[in-house]
Amino acid sequence: MVTLRSHRELLQMRKAGLVVWQALQLAGEKVHPGATTASIDAVVDRFFNSRQAIPLFKGVPGRVPFPASTCISVNEEVVHGIPGARSLKEGDVVSVDTGCKLNGWCGDSAITFPVGKVSPEVQKLLDITSGVLNLAIDLMGTKTRWSEVAREMATYVRDAGFSVVENFVGHGIGQKMHEEPQVPNFVSPQLRRNNDFRLEAGLVIAVEPMVNMGTKKTKEMPDHWTQSTQDGQPSAHFEHTIAMTPDGPWVLTGPPTEKELREEKVSGTDSHG
Predict the structure, then answer these.
(1) Helix axes 120-140 and 146-159, enclosed angle (nearest 10)
(2) Do the domain assignments include residue 2?
(3) How far apart are CA 199 and CA 194, in angstroms?
(4) pTM of structure
(5) Structure confidence by residue, pLDDT tens digits, 167-183
(6) 1 inside domain
(7) In CATH, what number is assigned to the domain containing residue 144?
(8) Most buried of the four, 3, 116, 200, 212, by CB within 10 Å?
């Protein structure tokens, strides 16, 4: 069952979303050739701790409990990469996915960053993946059901010559990281028959397109978490937590408004001293 949130609850989720936005800005500043993925995770972990925010990913159950505050996936890694000693190189792409709980409410977001200068085809992959997320946000303001959005998302990606990952989808979010409904970035018979949902005020979902340069197929790596493309070609991942309001979609993990900057003194790195 989909839980619709009140305006008061959305305001609480926005506070968590702003912390996630800030964490990703800090992570992006650490993305450069020679940086390790563990060093990027450490920055996010310290920032969450400074804001009394609980990392959503750390300790998630699995064959091995997830050990970090971020999922960091490099090049052919699609999602759920474990931060470690790997050093980034010029031309890599690195997806940083993170979330936190603040005062009982969750936010979840992801950005894929280029490391230095990337090839034109890789830059196109990043542009299309961020573009399809922006398309979804725009369509949420005009469509009635999620399937209408998902259909146009898939067409946008495929028309660009890339593939939509189908093994992993977005999700509802609120007081838990993963709630109903499931939020695919494509249309399947199952979505049409059983899992479609209305885009109505109070709905909060994490929309997270994952786009591969080659095949859509993925494989799990020996660490029991990292998911990689089967053909070894690059992948990109962008995500926002988005609420539906009577005035349209509200990106809860988006940058602060001028009013929020004045009221909360929220800023990127300045907020961390």
Answers:
(1) 160
(2) no
(3) 16
(4) 0.94
(5) 999 999 999 999 999 99
(6) no
(7) 3.90.230.10
(8) 212
